[in-house]
Input
Amino acid sequence: MTALTVPMRPHLTRWVLRLHRPALYAWTALVLLTAVLLILLRGPFADAAAEGWRQYNRCAFSDPCAYDQSAILRYKDWYNYGTLTMCALPFLVAAWAGGALVGRELESGTARLAWAQSSSPVRWLTVRLAVPAAVVTAGAALLAWLHHLVWTAGRGRIDTAAPWYDLFTFHTNGPTIVALTLVGLAAGALAGLLLRRALPALSVALLLTGAICVSTQALLPHLWPALGRTRPGFFSSPSGSWQVSGGRTGGRYHVAYHPYAHYWPLQLTATALLLAVTALLTLGCYLVLRRLTGKAARG
Output
């Protein structure tokens, strides 16, 4: 068997896992390392930072003040590292899906050889979408759960803990990061099918995923009805809430905001929207595949 042949009667799931074994190993290592970091943040790092803030608050009016500043800064830095790593997951998956999963196989001719020898184009694409989707969903869901535990452990104990509506914290704290990762997978596959070249598909996949992320953030405040207050003079939204707009009209000031009670409604509606986008991108993949292969795609 040469590099350009595939088994005549393959188990496609096993074949995809074997072909992309380096990517599977890299994904597993990334998830495990990030999970270990989040567990440390949930336990000893959070406890040490909370104690540092208790020391600081007790001696706020004394000079000199002795408190564990290193624990506070360590928690903040590593929280940011873990959160940003999770935010990068959709882009890493999109780049891999566009460049390696689909684009490279079409560019090299391996995909067409597989269609001719062993599997229909539809089955080929279905396996290449379903197997990675299961893997990335499991990994992203685990990290989202751990990240939410981290944030909950710091809420009310660590003064510099990110608010629930922080851009990066919001998406990594719940199912939206899972949906965004699936968007990256579908966007990468679509870019690979459209361009059929690894590097251009990788670039377009990143751009498309980024555009969807930015659009989602712009729509997020409007996915659930905000509360509003109108009073004379200037005032702000209640503490712990996300103020999304404010202005003065006729001497009265109005603010619209989302309280913390809106966290899960916003999470779930954003997730539903992103899954709908994923479904549309996936449909686009099959439509492009049908255009490429004609009647053969129906088999």
User: Anything to note?
Assistant: The beta strands are 227-232, 242-249, 252-258. The longest strand covers residues 242-249. Residues 12-221+275-298 form one domain. The chain is about 70% helix and 5% strand.
